[in-house]
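To: structure desk
From: M.T.
Subject: fold request, one chain
Message: Could you run this one when you get a chance? Sequence is below, nothing fancy, just the single chain.
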Amino acid sequence: MSLITITGYPASGKSSRARQLKAFLQEKAGGSKDVILLSEMSHSLDIKRSAYDNSAAEKPARGALLTAIIRLLSPNNILIVDAPNYIKGFRYQIYCAAREMKVRVATVYVLTPQEQCRNWNKLREGDDKYSDETLENLFQRYEEPSSMVRWDSPLFTLLWSDESISQSTLNAIWDAIEKGKVNNPNSGTVAVAKAPTDALAVLEKTTLSIMQQIMSSQNGFGGVVTLSHTSLVSGSTRLKLTLPSRNVTLPELSRLKRQFVTAQKKAITLGTIERGSVDWSEAGVGERFVVFLGEQFHR
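Reply: Done. Structure tokens follow.
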């Protein structure tokens, strides 16, 4: 259903805000949706703060986090990602993953002064604590989110000094993930269903059958021709074609057939015609050919 990305300086209080947000969303959803809080310290990840000490360790850690996000994304739950998410390129990757699943997104920015982060980090112990050098390095490398870019929007900023998230902000976040815009995947990233291996044979066989029926059925005065071949029956309705008030010659039909087949061959290669998949059954090909012929005859 939705993805909420938490971002902010290290040791800025992101986890506290994430827990407050989860409690609100669970109550608001009333059990109708699962609310999942994914953090780096989750048992399935167990990413230590030391992973940020150098790029060699940080890169696989980010990869593991992104993999976990993709695995948990679902139209049936609300996923909160509690991690530094300090690189805009990584937030964009998260956004793209959510877009592929067609779920709504929101970004929560926990705004905390660096000095306060230093103080809170000193209170931490063991694996939960950043080294001083790593903390300062992450401060320098942090890329603030912006409401002007689509992967950070809608953006909600929370101040560290507030004891809790205001009710108005919580309601706004809920509206964003419940009623907000669902971004569609880029057409270049959508999987395209390829045509079956016999599509070309079906195309040739079906168009030739229709040509033969037209040649044997016309009387030179026009009118409606019903295609009676069983393979050309679409559901319970047989295909019908209105002929012009003259004899349609074989060379004319052959020329129109070549035009149609050439256009359809492109679709066989691409798997689609403009948008949507193509029906390569005899009935589907026959219906498209009859429509094409009708448009050409009555131009």
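Reply (cont.): Confidence is low (pLDDT under 50) at residues 272-276. Let me know if you need anything else for the meeting.
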